[in-house]
């Protein structure tokens, strides 16, 4: 039995007030799996975990949850499947700290606003055939706004992948994801969430890593992990050991901030991921 993990963040800042429904992709869940869904909030100290039997979701493309935020509590209701134990969850948001701790809490917040720029990464794009995984740090502001990996118009990632795999440049996000699956390339980020003002990797603080160990265990055909930029590799090495049987390749960043290498040269380096 394999646990398949999905992480979702409640993001009021990027959704219309009436849009409170969130989708969980279940295409890769098999009948014998357990689907684990971790839900947190972009600004509140809220985290809730739900588990589903694979037999309940394996035949579906997705399931959905809807939230009702009452300020001091959040209700979560599911459609498409019933979590193990309960169908609806109500979680209370912790109130302010006790008076005896008030000064320490205020001092800490004043010196370092730890949630002022809290951001959360996306689920990975991959399937059982994935042999190459490209790891970034975490999505930039434009990507978070669009809900797409490498969403900035000047990020060279999609142009590089299409060039080195001899495919046309995909124009829609659906086509971009299809290109990755066709070429057996997966993408994810090392950080599940972090504080970052703006989109520069150098501004990442207080990061929490994604469950890369579980990802590797579930993707039996994985042979190569490429790091999209030096910060990605540094974060990986901070939290994870390298696995035998996997080749790790540092790659120049595709970020618009990396102006020190021209397109032909960056493609030549990135072609290393296709050598196995």
Automatic annotation (TrEMBL):
Pfam family name, one:
UDG
InterPro entries per record: Hypoxan-DNA_Glyclase, Uracil-DNA_glycosylase-like, Uracil-DNA_glycosylase-like_sf
**Domain of life according to the entry:** Bacteria
Q: Ranges for the Uracil-DNA glycosylase-like domain?
A: 123-274
Cited SMART domains: UDG, UreE_C
Gene3D superfamilies reported in the protein's UniProt record = Uracil-DNA glycosylase-like domain
NCBIfam families on file: hypoxanDNAglyco
Q: What is this protein called?
A: G/U mismatch-specific uracil-DNA glycosylase
């Amino acid at each position: 039995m394999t646990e398949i993990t999905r992480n979702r963040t409640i993001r009021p800042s990027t959704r219309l007030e009436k849009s409170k429904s969130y989708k969980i992709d279940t295409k890769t869940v098999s009948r014998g799996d357990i689907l684990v869904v971790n839900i947190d909030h972009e600004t509140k100290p809220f985290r809730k975990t739900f588990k589903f039997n694979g037999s309940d979701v394996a035949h579906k493309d997705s399931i959905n949850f809807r939230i009702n935020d009452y300020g001091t509590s959040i209700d979560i209701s599911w459609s498409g499947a019933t979590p193990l134990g309960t169908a609806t969850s109500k979680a209370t948001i912790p109130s302010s700290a006790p008076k005896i701790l008030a000064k320490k809490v205020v001092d800490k917040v004043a010196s370092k606003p730890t949630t002022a720029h809290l951001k959360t990464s996306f689920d990975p794009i991959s399937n059982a055939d994935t042999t190459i995984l490209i790891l970034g740090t975490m999505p930039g502001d434009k990507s978070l706004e669009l809900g797409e990996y490498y969403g900035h118009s000047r990020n060279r990632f999609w142009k590089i992948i299409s060039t080195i795999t001899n495919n046309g440049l995909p124009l829609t996000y659906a086509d971009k994801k299809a290109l990755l699956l066709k070429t057996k390339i997966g993408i994810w980020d090392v950080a599940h969430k972090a504080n970052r003002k703006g989109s520069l990797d150098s501004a990442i603080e207080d990061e929490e890593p994604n469950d890369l160990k579980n990802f590797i265990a579930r993707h039996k055909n994985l042979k190569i992990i490429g790091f999209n930029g030096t910060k990605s590799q540094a974060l990986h090495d901070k939290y994870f050991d390298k696995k035998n049987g996997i080749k790790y390749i540092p790659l120049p960043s595709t970020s618009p901030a990396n102006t020190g290498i021209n397109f032909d040269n960056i493609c030549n380096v990135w072609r290393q991921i296709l050598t196995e």
